[in-house]
């Protein structure tokens, strides 16, 4: 395979990742979410404190090294995801990591709407401070491609979920799950 073909294949893989066209799973999201919870309960001194970063080599022979902050939970999560998917192609690992953060942002941004649509319930079974999230919305976010293209004020392009489509599909998925559960109970 020539250099040009390799470059095109890499660009296609990056675009797949950027557009969320590599599905994940609700179970895997929960593994990473539970790891995040575990981080919050672990003293920072027990976190992975190794120096990690990136090295950028310049054409004129010099290089810059940028170190990641080991006290940032986001970096710890990135280390965890990289280890969990060791052996997977880089673009797949990147996709799962980006999706984890995109899912969290979606839950945060659309929390009120998700409550209105009964896809999230606060204080289930009277347990204060607890939140119950419908499996349907987690599965939808874990598998759906990003359908909305944005350009921010600095001109950076990115893809994200289309909220109305995600919520509509999750509601339909939940309706079917509820019907199946009701049918199995009778």
Note the gap between the termini. 60 Å
Q: What is the tally of beta strands?
A: 6
Spans of at least 5 consecutive residues with low confidence: none
Identify the strand order in the major beta sheet. Answer: 1-2
Mean of residue pLDDT? 89
What structural class do you assign from the helix and strand content? Answer: alpha+beta
Helix content: 40-55%
Can you count the helices?
7
Shape: globular
Output the helix-strand order.
HHEEHHHEEHEEH
In angstroms, what is the radius of gyration? Answer: 20 Å
How big a fraction of the residues is strand? Answer: 5-15%
Largest sheet: 2 strands, antiparallel
Write structural notes for this entry:
The protein is of the alpha+beta class and 186 residues long. Helices cover 54% and strands 13% of the residues. It has a two-stranded antiparallel sheet. It has a two-stranded antiparallel ribbon with strand order 3-4. Helix 6 packs across helix 7. The longest helix is centred in the C-terminal third of the chain and has 23 residues, at 163-185. It is globular.
Question: What brief labels describe this structure?
Answer:
single chain, 186 residues, two-stranded antiparallel ribbon, two-stranded antiparallel sheet, 6 strands, globular
Nutshell version of this structure?
It is built from seven helices and six strands; from the N terminus they run ααββαααββαββα. With 186 residues, it is an alpha+beta fold. The strands form three sheets. A two-stranded antiparallel ribbon has the order 1-2.
């Amino acid at each position: 395979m020539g250099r040009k073909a390799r470059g095109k294949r890499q660009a296609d893989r990056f675009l797949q990742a950027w557009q969320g066209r590599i599905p994940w799973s609700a179970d895997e999201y929960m593994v990473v979410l539970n790891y995040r919870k575990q981080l919050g309960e672990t003293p920072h001194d027990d976190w992975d404190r190794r120096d990690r970063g990136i090295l950028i080599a310049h054409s004129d022979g010099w290089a810059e090294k940028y170190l990641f902050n080991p006290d940032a939970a986001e970096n710890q999560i990135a280390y965890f995801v990289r280890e969990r998917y060791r052996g997977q192609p880089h673009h797949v690992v990147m996709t799962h990591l980006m999706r984890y953060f995109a899912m969290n942002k979606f839950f945060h941004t659309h929390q009120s709407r998700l409550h209105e649509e009964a896809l999230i319930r606060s204080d289930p079974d009277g347990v204060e401070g607890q939140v119950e999230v419908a499996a349907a919305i987690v599965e939808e976010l874990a598998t759906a491609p990003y359908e909305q293209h944005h350009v921010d004020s600095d001109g950076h392009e990115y893809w994200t979920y289309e909220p109305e489509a995600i919520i509509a599909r999750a509601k339909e998925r939940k309706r079917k799950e509820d019907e199946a559960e009701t049918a199995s109970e009778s």
